[in-house]
Every structure is written in structure tokens, then in C-alpha cells.
TrEMBL record:
Location of the Hemerythrin-like domain: 84-232
Name of this chain's protein: Iron-sulfur cluster repair di-iron protein
Compartments where located: Cytoplasm
Family matches, as Gene3D superfamilies: nmb1532 protein domain like (1.20.120.520)
This protein's record includes keyword Cytoplasm: yes
Originating species: Flavobacterium chungbukense
Length: 243
């Protein structure tokens, strides 16, 4: 048990994504800040580390029932999955949430002024994520896929214009941190997505969608920060000749 306390949160979730539910229950960030150890997190948030690990192990040791092992996937497949699943999700949901939030501000803003700040935060999120995903789709992911193909063919990896894969990864992780902070603020302003007593149907649906959006974003960032990115860095190091 003591050894597990020095294991990072992200590595637990990378091995078994079902443990993410446990960390979420304790309000522990497993995606943007997944590089922290159990000890670090528990000391900072005043959590009983033994109780947390007991819950994590219960989940990890239970039958998986078809749980997807993303950690075993080849990197090109994982990059495709992230783009086709999580990037598309962001695009689809932002187009619905933006007008919903605008409507809530107009109808309920007088009684619930926090809606204006929530709307402002989500508009920022939508804009930044759109640019962020394009950088991944046009620059980072194609290079990851090229590394996989080059490795399979025993070819030579030519150095990209950005130098090393660690450079765009550092930028992507910084942007992940920004969105993590933005959604922590949204969760606080919405009282963890709890609609007020006078909420109409649109109000309730919007808050439910925001909660789902944050959950999907956590999965999205986790797959990149804790699996795709570190493995891409390791893969790049396998190439002796870089031109």
C-alpha cells in the first residue's frame, strides 16, 4: 500500500479508466494534474490516502466487463480515436451550449448574474478548444502517426519544423491546464452543476450538458496527457537517426 502512495494519479487511470470515477468523487484532477502522486494529492486536499487507495483497488480488482484498455492501443489508433470521438464531441456540443447559455443570460440573468460569468468562461473555452484541436489535428497527430509508420518500416524520421515532439506537447498540456482551470471555475459558479429552484427546463438541460462536457473533457485530456503524449515522447527517442 505504501508503494502505491508514490504512484501518480494519471498512471492509475491510464491502467484502468474506471478508477477515474473514484478520483472524481474525491474531486481529484486525474487529467491536467495527473502527474501528482497519491501522497501529494492527499496531503494537499486533506484526504485519507488509505481510504482512497482502498476504493481505487476495489474498482481496479473488479471484473472489467468490457472496459476499453486504451493503454494497449497503438498511438496512431489512439490519435484517431481522440479526434473522431472527443474532438467531434466538443464541436457538436459547443454549437448547442453556446446558444443555450446566451438564452439563459437573457431570461434568467437578472436573478442569477453568475450566468454571465459562466457564459463568458464557456465562450472562452469553445474558442480556445477549437484552436487547440486544430493544432493537434494538423500538426501533432500527423507527426505521431508518421512516427508509428516510420517505426514499422524501419525508416528514418526526419526532424519536423517544431524540433522535437516535446515542444507541441508542452504547449498542448499548458492549454489543457487552462481549460481545466476554466471548468473548475464553471463548476464552482454552478454549485457543481446544480440548477437553482426556479430553473426552467432549458436551465436544467444546460447544466446537465455542462457537467457532461466537463466529464468528456477530463477523459479527452487524460488520454492525451497520461497515455498518448508520454508514449509519443518515448517513441521519438527510439529513432537514432534524426535529420
Amino acid at each position: 500500500m505504501e508503494n502505491l502512495k508514490n504512484k501518480t494519479i494519471g498512471s492509475f487511470v491510464a491502467e484502468d479508466f474506471r478508477t477515474a470515477a473514484v478520483f472524481s468523487k474525491y474531486r481529484i484532477d486525474f487529467c491536467c494534474k495527473g502527474n501528482r502522486t497519491v501522497n501529494e494529492v492527499c496531503e494537499k486536499q486533506n484526504i485519507d490516502a488509505d481510504a482512497l487507495l482502498e476504493n481505487v483497488l476495489q474498482v481496479a480488482q473488479s471484473e472489467k466487463n468490457g472496459s476499453i484498455d486504451f493503454n494497449s492501443w497503438p498511438l496512431d489508433l489512439l490519435a484517431d480515436y481522440i479526434e473522431k470521438t472527443h474532438h467531434r464531441y466538443v464541436e457538436e456540443k459547443t454549437s448547442v451550449l453556446l446558444p443555450f447559455l446566451d438564452k439563459l443570460c437573457k431570461v434568467h440573468g437578472a436573478n442569477h448574474p453568475e450566468l454571465f460569468k459562466i457564459n463568458e468562461l464557456f465562450i472562452g473555452c469553445a474558442g480556445e478548444l477549437s484552436q487547440h484541436m486544430k493544432k493537434e489535428e494538423l500538426i501533432l497527430f500527423p507527426f505521431v502517426k508518421r512516427m508509428v509508420k516510420t517505426k514499422e518500416s524501419d525508416g528514418i524520421l526526419h526532424q519536423p519544423s517544431f524540433g522535437t515532439v516535446s515542444n507541441p506537447i508542452a504547449m498542448m498540456m499548458h492549454e489543457h491546464d487552462n481549460e481545466g482551470e476554466r471548468f473548475r471555475a464553471i463548476a464552482e459558479l454552478t454549485n457543481n452543476y446544480t440548477p437553482p429552484a426556479d430553473a426552467c427546463t432549458t436551465y436544467r438541460v444546460t447544466f446537465a450538458m455542462l457537467r457532461e462536457f466537463e466529464e468528456d473533457l477530463h477523459k479527452h485530456i487524460h488520454l492525451e496527457n497520461n497515455i498518448l503524449f508520454p508514449k509519443a515522447v518515448v517513441l521519438e527517442k527510439d529513432f537514432v537517426e534524426v535529420e
